Amino acid sequence: MGKITNEELLASINSKFEGQVTVVGDPYGLLTVETNTETIIALLGFIKNDPTLQFIYLTDITAVHYPDQEKTIGVIYHVHSLVNNVRIRIKVFIDGENCHIPTATTLWEGANWMERETYDYFGVIFDGHPDLRRILNVDDMTAFPMRKEFPLEDPNRVDKKDYFFGR
Question: Which of 29, 34, 44, 59 could be cross-linked to 78 through a Cys-Cys bond (beta carbons 3.0 to 4.6 Å apart)?
Fold first, then answer.
């Protein structure tokens, strides 16, 4: 089976999800698209189960916090078609106060820990997840440390003052 191009991949996606997927770009040949919470699981299921596309390998699920945007949390999926040697990045932006998105564990069991990590660090709630609890931080932690709501360092540390560095 030959390698499919990003144009062929996009045409296949648009034939099924017309108007529900927006192209963000293709930096370094990595097709990047954006969709919404209502479409994400159907889109992931389609690219995984389509006999031509065969995006069977979920590489990663993570999130990014954009505090200056209206929808402050971006959930990012990286999926790889090993047969075609093509990757795709899918982004879904959600509200930082109401961080709900459907779970991908219905498609890939390996999504379990990726979603737990994303919940642990960003507070994204994956609806339908079989065991959504913290995985790396302590259970009673109330903050989500990868959000940009916290300073990178303690401003009261005296060993980090500029005059120690000749500034």
Answer: 59
